[in-house]
Specification:
Elements: H1 2-10, H2 22-44, H3 49-67, H4 71-96, H5 105-126, H6 129-135, H7 137-143
Helix pairs in contact: 2-3, 2-5, 3-4, 4-5
């Protein structure tokens, strides 16, 4: 059931999903899992409803677009993940210096750590050789 729902969410009717590399499919799954963790930590940190909905819609759209082979969405995801990793490093530095005392640190930081690790793994998949060839398939078709 979830696999069917995932395929409906992550495929473009114009694209044949059979040619999507395994790396891209795995990266999209990892991005969705990391996104769920991110939304969970945001909720635990006390994000209000409107920003929660805006972030949910924006990131869902970006992950879906990346799964459809949109190159700009892959680059935007790269930029967002780089900023998230930098934010993670900054938060770790603050926690180690004891300059910030968070209420949910014991729960949020492990979830945040797993989220960042999943995002980095997803990026390596999204920028692997087979994934690059798949994202650049439009350029090859235009040249022929």
């Amino acid at each position: 059931m979830l696999n069917t729902l995932f395929k409906k969410f992550s495929t473009n009717p114009e694209n044949n999903d059979d040619d999507k590399p395994k790396q891209v499919a795995n990266a999209i799954i990892l991005l969705y899992v990391a996104f769920i963790l991110s939304m969970t930590t945001d909720w635990l940190d006390g994000i209000s409803v409107v920003p929660f909905i805006v972030v949910f819609l924006l990131i869902s759209f970006l992950i879906s677009s990346t799964g459809q082979g949109t190159k700009w969405a892959r680059i935007v995801m790269l930029i967002l993940i780089v900023f998230n990793v930098l934010s993670f490093v900054f938060n770790i530095a603050q926690l180690l210096s004891h300059s910030v005392k968070e209420r949910f640190t014991n729960l949020v930081m492990p979830l945040y750590t797993v989220e960042v690790i999943l995002e980095i793994i997803a990026l390596t998949f999204l920028f692997s050789k087979p994934a690059n060839a798949w994202f650049n398939r439009g350029n090859v078709e235009e040249e022929e």
